[in-house]
Amino acid sequence: MSLFYTFHFYFFGVMAIASALVFVTRKSPVAAAMWLVTTMFCLAALYIMLGAEFIGAIQVLVYAGAIMVVFLFVVMLLNLGNPSEIADIRGKWAGLLASFLGIALLAQLMTLARSRVPGEVMRSPIVASWEQTPHPGGVVGLIAAPLFREYLLAFEITSVLLLAAIVGSVVIGRGRQH
Amino acid sequence: MLAESLALSAALFTIGVVGVLTRRNAIIVFMCVELMLNAVNLSFVALSRLYGVEGQVFVVFVMTVAAAEAAVGLAIVIAIFRHRQTVNLENINLLKG
Lengths: 178, 97
Known about the structure:
The complex is a heterodimer of chains A (178) and B (97).
Chain A: H1 3-25, H2 29-49, H3 53-77, H4 92-116, H5 119-123, H6 129-132, H7 138-148, H8 152-174
Chain B: H1 2-22, H2 26-51, H3 54-84
């Protein structure tokens, strides 16, 4: 584990947390969406550093590209860009309750991860199976082989889900003038 | 790097939960849900180094479901806005009884 790798891993991790914190505290939806895009780019870099190059690529294409563009499109379609007309952060007590719940949830998640994975495995550098023997189809073939063999049924059902989502969003978004 | 990845995933998920609890703008609440899905994807990818490549296949499925959820959810937000001229969750309380 070289110093270069470790430095950039921590750099992108800290960037992801910092931009996520800025994201939840922005008043303007457009600014919040931009900071969320920053978080997603940092996560894409982390995926690539963890050896999931294909996931990193579709993280940029699907999340930072497609999904966030849909969000920004709706914000601008509804003309919600002005932050003054939506004072949307809840009061002091809700904030206190939420931060208490957040700390409790964080402690629970950390304890869960610690109890499920042995400590020596956590700290040791793991050489993934696909790094010992590279897949003949490259990083895309590595994902495609299980996706189109063991999980073919789930893949096809996902396409039905997408079709249902397209039809549903058109029907809901169209209104009742027709 | 597994411990750091899981800790980062937990932190991002918690930030998403706090965002859902403290914001009233429906679109920002949706974005917080996307942040939570991203945090789960990070732990899938980190653990796939240990347990095999199936974790990355599941990340593909999670992304597909997230795209479908964003499309339908934003259509619902547009329908609510057309009906009530607001996306503030305080004003959307028909189910409160």
